[in-house]
Amino acid sequence: MNTDKSTLKELRIGEKTAQIPIIQGGMGVGISRSRLAGAVAREGGVGVISTAQIGYDEEGFEQDQARCNRMAIEKHVKKAKEIAGGRGLVGVNIMVALKHYEEHVRESVKAGADVIISGAGLPMDLPKLVSEESGTKIAPIVSSRRAANLILKMWAHRYDRTADFIVIEGPKAGGHLGFSREQLADINALDFDEEICRIIECKKEYEEKFDRKIPVIVAGGVFDRADIDHVMELGADGVQIASRFVATEECDASEAYKRAYIEAETSDIQIVQSPVGMPGRALRNEFIRHLEAGREPIRKCYNCLEKCDPRKVPYCITKALIEAVKGNLDKGLIFCGANVGRIHEMTTVHELMQELAY
User: Fold this and answer.
1) DSSP E strands: which ranges in 137-250?
2) What is the pTM of this model?
3) How many folded domains does the chain comprise?
């Protein structure tokens, strides 16, 4: 592997440019909003806001989540752009599994998001919701060549359109994962480098068809510059990093949430089942231990997931994530990446971006 640590090249997504090819991964509920995303963009990267229950602290949220989330999307995208001061890009991460997915997409475009990254399901209809004239770039999150080809083929056939870029999320990512529990049981046995190369090869057909470059961003387990250099050698154009940005002063989470990351050991990580229907990686805490003893009764539905039946799911993921972001950790779900045990101190976005990029 080339160990020459030269400055990373800029990331070009169509006519849009990020000076540093680092995307800060979207983290909900409320972990990555305008403060973090704006700070990352100001450093020349791509700051990403998660729209999942983004308006959890807006007045009236308990009565009307949909309205508060729409308001918060506009507010946080615009605020992040103000913080960025014209540098980098500001985007949003929107889960396909959301009940109000289309609303979130349309509101993000209206607010002026530079990019929309969409996963936790296959975003088959994303091009229908985001016109090329809007200037907002669109990207699916995929974890396999099969998923990448399915989306690119469908977008080309149905909308005569292709992805502006692709995010490949590996098995070491945090939050919801596109892998089975069996695959995640021994993540080191998965040769994901080969899958990355297969996805890069797959997208070349669509680059030729649409006469444009489709940048590939690799996510999941990217921790330091050595990891960045490694995936760049595989053919990636950039990386997406999430967990490391939690332990920054600018992260929108509570101080207690950040301390949980800093104090975590690798042995604290556990794979949990999310009401979204996917496995998720989280820190084992009192909340998870409580769930092992029995189902957490759901007394209120927050209308977040399209396919959630409050009578059957083991817990309310909205309530669990809101408790966590507020700092009530014993009552909350703390999603994390596989390398959280390597995070030992608080830093700033500027210091972290300097460490990774230069």
Assistant:
1) 137-142, 166-169, 175-176, 216-219, 238-241
2) 0.94
3) 2
